[in-house]
Amino acid sequence: MLGSIHTEMAALLQERHAPLYNRTTDELELGHLDVESVLEILRQHTTVDPERLLFLWALFEGVPKFYRDCFEQGVLRAPRRELLERAFFASSSPLRTEADNWFLKELHGRYDAILKFVARKPGCTNGELLEHVRQVSADTQEQVGGYLKVLIEKYRIIEKRLPIFAKKTERQGRYYLTDNFLRAWLAALASPVSAMAFRQLELVVRQADEKLAEVEGTALEKLVATLYEERSRKGIGDFRLTERVQGYWDRADTEIDMVAVAGEDEILRLVTCKRSPEKLVADLPRFDGHVARFVTASPRFGGWKIEKVAVAPSLDESARRRIVERGYIPEDLNDLTRDLLVRARTGP
């Protein structure tokens, strides 16, 4: 529970002198709607094309309230900028103050520098974060460490990720916001919304849309990893995961967006994701070097089948052909959602 509800619950259950302190007997975690449910919302109320899915998922992920808000405004099927204008910029917009009312107000501005930097630079290191905070505020390194601990452990609004297969003591952690809506707000929407008082509406909406397109690059990686895990969990497709899908990086500048492991079948998939199909294809020679370094550093996969996968929101036949010629498996959101859409229509 977030926002004022979280504060009230904490006062009842966690404060030492509260009447229900230390009497919690069970916890129930309520997660987001899965992607199959989001696809069903889109199928019934708008289109299910890859660009639309990525746009809405990068904004709202699997929070049903946000889709309901847009439905009630009549913009769930509207063009991008019209949806943004009606949902965030109009005086009666239901989401204009949502981030503040929903959570940020409860933080009283203490963590602004950290949250904004992590939102705008997902995957930042501890050193990058400390350097940024030194430049913009008077917080010491000890305060930043304490703030991060609260944001990670208490509020679970920031996540520290390690490279796949890394030990928990590994010092190469990277920081990400856990919630798509909050990241989209802090990285793309908050500044344009606040600029409405002195700039033309058309300009600030366009600025928000352009910044949101940048946010969608990282959201694509998260969406593809979520789809891999959901498909495996529901027995869809031929890739049976045995570990959570994660990224990999090391000090030799090796960078793999997603590593998917099918241990029972001894198949390893190394995945690169790009928002633009043209940039995806152009980057494959460089990614080959990352794959080679990863395989060399991971002798445990000797004898395994290594599959290289290139993912974009949508791929035409020309892009697919060029990807195959480079020795990669082409995948787009149509490929990854097709079976889920069939399930949504017919039931599991």
Identify the notable features of this structure and list them briefly.
alpha/beta; 5-stranded mixed sheet; single chain; 8 strands; 348 residues; 14 helices; Trna Endonuclease, Chain: A, domain 1; 3-stranded antiparallel sheet; globular
Overview of the molecule:
With 348 residues, the chain is an alpha/beta fold. It has a domain of 107 residues: Trna Endonuclease, Chain: A, domain 1 (3-Layer(aba) Sandwich). Helix content is 54%, strand content 12%. It is built from 14 helices and eight strands. The chain has a five-stranded mixed sheet, sandwiched between helices. The chain has a three-stranded antiparallel sheet with strand order 1-3-2. Strand 7, helix 13 and strand 8 form a beta-alpha-beta unit. Helix 7 packs across helix 8 and helix 10 runs antiparallel to helix 11. The longest helix has 33 residues. The protein is globular and about 60 Å long. 34% of the residues are buried.
Describe the structure concisely.
This protein is an alpha/beta fold.
Draw up the topology in text:
Layout: H1 3-13, H2 35-45, H3 50-60, H4 64-72, H5 80-89, H6 98-107, H7 112-120, E1 124-125, H8 126-136, H9 141-154, E2 158-161, E3 174-177, H10 180-194, H11 201-233, E4 246-249, E5 255-262, E6 267-273, H12 277-297, E7 305-312, H13 317-325, E8 329-332, H14 333-346
Parallel strand pairs: 6-7, 7-8
Antiparallel strand pairs: 1-3, 2-3, 4-5, 5-6
The CATH class assignment of the domain at 240-346 is Alpha Beta
Helix content: 40-55%
Q: Roughly what fraction of the amino acids lie in strands?
A: 5-15%
Structural class: alpha/beta
The biggest sheet, with number of strands, parallel, antiparallel or mixed sense and barrel status, is:
5 strands, mixed
- Categorize the overall geometry: globular
The appropriate CATH architecture of the domain at 240-346 is 3-Layer(aba) Sandwich
Number of helices: 14
Spatial strand order of the main sheet? 4-5-6-7-8
Distance between the termini: 30 Å
In oligomeric terms, what are we looking at?
single chain
